[in-house]
Amino acid sequence: MKRIGFLSFGHWSDTPHSQTRTASDTLLQSIDLAVAAEELGADGAYFRVHHFARQLGSPFPLLAAIGAKTSRIEIGTGVIDMRYENPMYMAEDAGAADLISGGRLQLGVSRGSPEQVIDGWRYFGYEPSEGDSDGDMARKHTEVLLTVLRGKGFAQPNPSPMFANPPGLLRVEPHSEGLRERIWWGASSNATAAWAAGLGMNLMSSTLKNDEGGAPFHVQQAAQIRAFREAWAEAGWEHEPRVSVSRSIFALTDDRDRAYFGRDGDSSDHVGNIDATTRAIFGRTYAAEPDVLVKQLAGDEAIQEADTLLLTVPNQLGVAYNTHVLDNILTHVAPALGWR
């Protein structure tokens, strides 16, 4: 059994074939797709966060809106770039969105990926400390967030407050109990996966990772997951961690599917540089008739290791088509693999 959800990058563009011409289109359709996914029986609605781009940015208004319109589906991010975040303010926003949703928030955070502008986090007012990289800054922001989400008081109260305070030191409010255990780290390397395990974060692994050894993508990702679980056990955490992987998977069941994705059937892993120093391996797209997909996915080692599968969706094709994409997997593929 696996939790199966979708991951949307929330693109919009004013082009003839796009169903999302504006930011408003993308936001409102994201809510509608989450509602539709819940009705289908999917388990999660997740959204990528990018800045300075025609994609979804600030996630918490969207997550809160989805939380108010749904009742069961998990709501999350994959991922929030912590280079851009004030962890105190983020804890407030996340606490509020989690309470609105009834404790269904699953927040994926990370260092982030190359962005649309150079050092965009500087425009947000952040600068790494002397001797630190922007990645170090992201990890430090994350550590502060994790500490704050524990709900322990740390701020000295005003002796003459406008409103009465509870006794002792004060914490960030609103606090949502249990959210601390629903933070995920988007790891691109085995080392950062182990680091996340040491801090008690769940693991979120995407369709690309650092190329560490030259093996096929799914084999490297499976090794990363095992390294994460080993580090988790060594850290002595009492609860079980969760692990998600994302994939582009399309079951070809009608002429639309074949027109959009039929040519991706011969897709394979590819390797490239995501910056001047990082060589990455990118996972293939799966696109085939359902019976062929079942055989292909059964051989994906990383999917077998994970408890959660996030399906990347082509959000610019609209809510109706993406609902069809999810239904295809839930109906024609997942049961045959024992995921349902």
UniProtKB/TrEMBL annotation:
GO terms for cellular component: cytosol. InterPro entries: Bact_Lucif_Oxidored, Luciferase-like_dom, Luciferase-like_sf. Residues 9-259 form the Luciferase-like domain. GO terms for molecular function: oxidoreductase activity, acting on paired donors, with incorporation or reduction of molecular oxygen. It is an enzyme of class 1 (oxidoreductase). The keyword Magnesium does not apply. The keyword Oxidoreductase applies. Keywords: Oxidoreductase. This is LLM class flavin-dependent oxidoreductase.
